[in-house]
């Protein structure tokens, strides 16, 4: 058995009233977690909701889902079943592909900012550390799993991380719990299973507390990573990273010692939710991209983003679908607009700047750049080619076709974040509306 108070303490500090989603596979670990949380529901900050994902990888998968639903019903707990398809990725492997597909499905269902509780325990932590060691991971990877983590925009809570699996098994037996057994857990083709079935029994025979010892090492490394993150935060402020554009200035970056350059790049990638760059990729970023000629525009593809160079900066650019060329929205007031790529157009009230309020009366059209546009900038007597303006404003080339433009009939009257036409600009005694674009950013759960 295990002490319930440390487990509950990790959950009681979470926001009151928010649903606590419980990852529920139906295996022993998640059965114990669900039963334990149900027994202590009155001590939790929010209601429980079990969520099960059917990967359709085993013949018995449907029966497992039925078992999970029956368990939830027996304890009068809300239950959600998600069914997904998993493609065996040659790059990731089936195990990792299934995990990513599972979290993706859960994240989409429970929504941004939601909380997911998982049943990861001490042995899982030790296995994770060992796998990361064998992959040559850095300090962050060797830190293993934290009690509080995140996946994209959801919080991941792991209250059992310090609990031994044998204690979970004792709990399950004491409460006469039934669980499902996944036959794939015996398949030694999967790396984690090989460690669990072949490697750790040998290690445990010599070092009986190997799981606890490795988990303790992971905790020490997590503390070291916290210090590295604090160093990176100081460097980021000095260098003046532009988070709205995910822009990292090169010249001040290269003035740092090389280990701090790499640490800052890793930290920035982590903050942006990007897969950690390998040593080879870091070397390419620092030795090729950062040292390229000013007019060169090299790039590096990472998972989910492409790192590009423009002028004296590196940009982490989301790999998203381009804005549809025929997209447009009609506005009759300065209202927020969610763009097709997830960004949001907002309007700021500014004295002596922006579009006069009465200009909206006849309707304005928001659309993408087509090419050939001209605009009369504030303080100018004549129209100028937008292409020339974008070059003068140092707008990166890949952003130019994605910029929301505001039209009154056929007249270009505003370029979001950069300019409002003299034709409609508020005077010094008037308030105007200035268009600005906000990125789709991940929420911080720490």
Automatic annotation (TrEMBL):
**What EC number(s) is this enzyme filed under?**
6.3.4.19
Alphabetical keyword list: ATP-binding, Cytoplasm, Ligase, Nucleotide-binding, tRNA processing
Q: Where in the cell is it found?
A: Cytoplasm
* GO cellular component term of the entry, any: cytoplasm
Catalytic function, reaction form: cytidine(34) in tRNA(Ile2) + L-lysine + ATP = lysidine(34) in tRNA(Ile2) + AMP + diphosphate + H(+)
Please indicate if the UniProt record lists Zinc-finger as a keyword: no
Q: What class of enzyme is it?
A: ligase
Q: Known Pfam families for this protein?
A: ATP_bind_3 (PF01171), TilS (PF09179), TilS_C (PF11734)
Q: Which Gene Ontology molecular function entries are recorded, alphabetically?
A: ATP binding; tRNA(Ile)-lysidine synthase activity
Q: Where is the Lysidine-tRNA(Ile) synthetase C-terminal domain?
A: 364-437
Q: Identify the HAMAP family for this entry.
A: tRNA_Ile_lys_synt
Family the UniProt entry places it in: Belongs to the tRNA(Ile)-lysidine synthase family.
- Task of the protein: Ligates lysine onto the cytidine present at position 34 of the AUA codon-specific tRNA(Ile) that contains the anticodon CAU, in an ATP-dependent manner. Cytidine is converted to lysidine, thus changing the amino acid specificity of the tRNA from methionine to isoleucine.
Record comment regarding domains? The N-terminal region contains the highly conserved SGGXDS motif, predicted to be a P-loop motif involved in ATP binding.
Name by which UniProt lists this protein: tRNA(Ile)-lysidine synthase
List the taxonomic lineage: Bacteria, Pseudomonadati, Pseudomonadota, Gammaproteobacteria, Thiotrichales
Q: State which gene encodes it.
A: tilS
């Amino acid at each position: 058995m295990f002490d319930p108070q440390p487990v509950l303490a990790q959950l009681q500090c979470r926001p009151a009233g928010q649903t606590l989603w419980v990852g529920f596979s139906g295996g022993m670990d998640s059965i114990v977690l669900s039963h334990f949380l149900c027994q202590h529901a009155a001590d939790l900050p929010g209601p429980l909701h079990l969520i099960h994902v059917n990967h359709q990888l085993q013949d018995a998968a449907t029966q497992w889902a039925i078992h999970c639903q029956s368990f939830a019903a027996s304890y009068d707990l809300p239950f959600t079943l998600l069914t997904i398809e998993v493609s065996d990725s040659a790059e990731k492997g089936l195990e990792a592909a299934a995990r990513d597909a599972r979290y993706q499905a859960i994240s989409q269902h429970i929504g941004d900012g939601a909380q997911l509780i998982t049943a990861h325990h001490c042995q899982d932590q030790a296995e994770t550390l060992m796998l990361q060691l064998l992959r040559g991971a850095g300090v962050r990877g060797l830190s293993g799993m934290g009690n509080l983590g995140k996946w994209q925009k959801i919080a991941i809570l792991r209250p059992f991380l310090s609990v031994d699996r044998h204690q979970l098994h004792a709990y399950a037996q004491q409460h006469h719990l039934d669980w499902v057994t996944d036959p794939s857990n015996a398949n030694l083709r999967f790396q984690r299973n090989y460690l669990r079935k072949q490697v750790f029994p040998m290690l445990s025979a010599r070092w009986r507390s190997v799981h606890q010892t490795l988990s303790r090492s992971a905790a020490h490394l997590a503390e070291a990573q916290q210090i590295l993150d604090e160093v990176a935060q100081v460097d980021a402020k000095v260098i003046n990273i532009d988070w709205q554009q995910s822009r990292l200035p090169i010249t001040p970056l290269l003035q740092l010692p090389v280990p701090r350059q790499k640490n800052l790049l890793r930290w920035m990638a982590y903050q942006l939710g990007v897969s950690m760059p390998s040593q080879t990729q870091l070397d390419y970023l620092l030795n090729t991209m950062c040292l390229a000629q000013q007019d060169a525009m090299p790039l590096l593809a990472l998972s989910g983003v492409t790192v590009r160079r423009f002028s004296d900066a590196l940009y982490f650019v989301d790999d998203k679908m381009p804005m549809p060329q025929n997209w447009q929205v009609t506005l009759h007031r300065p209202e927020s607009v969610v763009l097709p790529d997830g960004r949001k157009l907002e309007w700021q009230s500014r004295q002596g700047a922006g579009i006069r309020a009465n200009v909206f009366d006849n309707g304005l059209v928001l659309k993408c750049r087509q090419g050939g546009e001209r605009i009369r900038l504030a303080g100018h007597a004549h129209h100028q080619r937008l292409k020339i303006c974008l070059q003068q404003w140092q707008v990166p080339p890949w952003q130019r076709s994605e910029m929301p433009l505001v039209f009154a009939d056929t007249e270009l009257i505003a370029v979001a974040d950069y300019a409002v036409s003299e034709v409609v600009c508020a005077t010094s005694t008037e308030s105007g509306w200035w268009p600005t674009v906000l990125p789709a950013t991940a929420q911080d759960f720490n």
